[in-house]
Amino acid sequence: MRDGIRLFTRVFIPKDDSKSWPILLTRTPYALKPYGSDNYNSPDGSFATLAKDQFIMVTQDVRGRYGSEGTYMHVRPFNPSKGPKDIDESSDAWDTIDWLVKNIPSNNGKVGLFGISYPGFYTSMGMINNHPALKAASPQAPITDWFIGDDIHHNGAFFLSQNFDFFYKFSQQPEDPLREPHRDFNFKTPDGYDFFLRMGPLANSDKVLLKGRSPEWNEFLSHPTYDAYWQARNIRPHLKNINCAVMNVGGWFDAEDLFGPLETYRWTEKQNLKTTNILVMGPWSHGAWSRTPGSTLGPINFHAKTGDYYREKIELPFFRHYLKGDTNFTPTEAQIFETGTHRWRKFDAWPPRESVTRTLFFQPGGKLRFEPSTDQAQPFDEYVSDPAKPVPYTNQKSPKYPSDYPLEDQRFAASRTDVLVYETEPLEEDLTLAGPLVASLHVSTTGTDSDWVIKLVDCYPGDFPNPEPNPTQAKMGGYQQLVRGDVFRGKFRNSFEKPEPFIPEKITTIKFAIPDVCHTFRRGHRVMIHIQSSWFPLVDRNPQTFVNIPTAKQEDFRKATQRIYRSSKAQSELQVQVLPQPKP
After folding, report:
1. What pTM was computed for the model?
2. Domain that holds residue 554
3. Is 284 a residue whose pLDDT tops 90?
């Protein structure tokens, strides 16, 4: 690298040296084990598909990880004013590509860059002010903003169980990191709900459990607002000067980084008007498109091997076109899998130009309609939120998180008294939602802080048949499939930088965007919305008092009565994008 640091890089070159081949590079913090000149790992998934097509496959440990020299930094911020020896992940990608095209035999001078999750972030960084040899890049489930919507926080709410074991392992520094495996945290129970509830306040996550073994965990908790630390790690405004084709890839049921690919697509699109920039979204959990057939998730059958299709019919042709000159590929602006109908669709824009903005209004009696409420007799619904008995986010027993919870049956939550449920009548025709969602909640609380969780749910008819085969013994009649859910930490309703307490019992508006969907509610199904104030232990417990939650004490946690208003003067609602049904 330009500052003299050397990065460990592994190169696989096709045996056929009679031709020149393009390079495909992945940069990762996750290790290239097994190490050693005579040790190799067998490629699978995307790597196998691409290797068989004769690409030079290159993987690299990023700066400060495993075989590479230097100092590691989480989501190293982009430096827009680099001097000759200054570095960031963009410059490391540039220097790596420059070295590869000048030193690797049998390369054709064209490079592609791709990666999933953290490697997706390094792909995004490599696109900025890119090396001229970089012709195609595919950020897949990339980290984009760790406070607003990816991995660690959603709208300021801290994601606990999803990150606890991950950063425990990530932080480990074994004596021989190139050979010794990282160990999972020993939870001593399969019940994550009980484990984290017994943990007590969030401060105990380090004081009692981690005991200083994850420095970054404490680093994250020491920044409880959207301060300079998090803002510097927001890559979106830096996605400029991109002069290569970009294919953004994500999964509709990605529990970790759904926000990332959608936001990377949007910001790349608006800041690079001449760049080919396309979006692919499928029915996948985190990274499943690269390594699984993609035919099912949980009890839901998509009736197609969507992962195989992606690798062979989308990803491979993309790189063949831009790196090998294959003309049997025409970029599609948005290639989107529509859940509910289980079919691939192609659009010339995302969201689709033909989508129409409509609003679902909360109604008395738990009803949900596209018309505003006129009820004035009791213009609110209420529930008591108790931090000692938080609403679970899954009905499965796991101390980490089940990858299929983003489409899990929500009947376990709907039956609780601290969850409000609104639903339409059975639909008389299919209803397709395609695009972002916007929640506008008019609320009050008897506390001074609160979380607000909203879930969009597809409620199946009571006589819906069970899948065949049915290894999980799922009962699909009345199944409440989670389509999209998200959380907003109420004290950030006016500013993520400067939180504000609620005034007890005063009506307050909370408005926030929720990541996109492309889902058809079939005829006979109901559209359902759940509202609740905890989602545990996916999200840490809000004490419901205005305190710094990472240092909150047990006595700070209090019950609160929550109200959702639905009158003409304070109408809670969910704005959706409706895609017109094709005419018969």
Report:
1. 0.96
2. 356-579
3. yes
